[in-house]
Amino acid sequence: MVPKKGRKVMGFRERQKTAIEVTTRPPLKRSGPILAMRGRQLIAVISVVFVGTQAGNVQVCRDLKSCAACADSYIHVLGFKEQCRWCVETQSCGGPLSCPFGKPVVQRDLFRCPTTHSEAQGKRYSDALGRSLFAVSVSVRDPKPSECLRNVRPDITYTKTYEVECDGAGNKCKGLLGVSDEAKALYVAYKGTSFDKQLFAEFLHGLAAQLGAWEKFESEEAGVITYFHNAFYKLFVESGMKDDLVDLQKKYPSYRVWVTGHSLGGSLASMTALYLVKTGSVDRKKMRLVTFGEPRTGNVAYAKEIESFIDFRYRVIKKNDAVTNLPASADPNTPLLTASMYNRQPLYYRFLVHYDNLMQPGDSFKICELSDDHGCRNLAMAGDFSDHTSYFGINQDDYVREGCPRAQLIR
């Protein structure tokens, strides 16, 4: 039936509410002012119910002025729910096709909104810091790390190494604890991936993770790749490495704890940092996490936990390093990506430090404030394995064979 012009057509909920109100209404022996007041109260109740059911739904996206509000809102287009998009470059909110093509966009999850990194002394990343920590990571590849460190980081006077078989194929995982009185620092460093059966095993487990097969890591929601999960517990927890670190902390209670590693070692480093802070083993104010060439270690919840518990955190990536784009992650702005699918995706934590060059002394870098690097580097081009093996212009195995000459890495 077509309603007469000017007449409002009531929906089911309105008709139901009206019917209830009519059947329960007492005899109309009320004065005009009282009836008017009752009417206003009823309208107020209906208004509250209506607004409460429309949370997140807006009429026009462009009226929203912040990334958080925009990413948490949606409109209806031809009966379909359509997320609002925050255009990072123009700092504006809009609907479909509103942002410049190829530029960073945030939608669906306000976690992906830009987060400012600190430039304060003691909280910022520098090239000198990166080189100094990479030297510690490289030393773990040496059969005798203390000899390598004696040349490249002579301030680290105590070391202890740990090595275990981290999979059924006999591949080894190796870690190191070190102490520098000069830097007032404790170091936890991990060896990177071996480019043979170990990389292939990681790749297979990464494929499983893309399908949602994550191992829970210290929470019900946060998950990591199975290979990393098993390696972490075998190497850091079961080998005695964790207990020795706790003892070192008791001996040096004021020292900061620096956790680092390259490739697989980067994933183990991020898991170690999160584990230590969540379990209360290390005060978050003393925790420092810097990784090199780290792949996507965990899912969305894992990335969120890293950012929630670790304040000082940087992922250093060289140019188009292929390993850093594994396992593959769908662009969060893909229209067919449901909320459930999105939460099962691999995701990076912030902050990316991207060297879009050869990482020679004096080369520049960019720090990305967006999650998962979308809009900060060309992920479609991240397929160069030679970039993964030549951070700061050195081949790690050659560097170790040459005795870890300081001048090649630290200037």
TrEMBL record:
InterPro entries: AB_hydrolase_fold, Fungal_lipase-type. GO terms for biological process: lipid metabolic process. Pfam families: Lipase_3 (PF01764). Residues 187-328 form the Fungal lipase-type domain. This is Fungal lipase-type domain-containing protein. It comes from Caenorhabditis auriculariae.
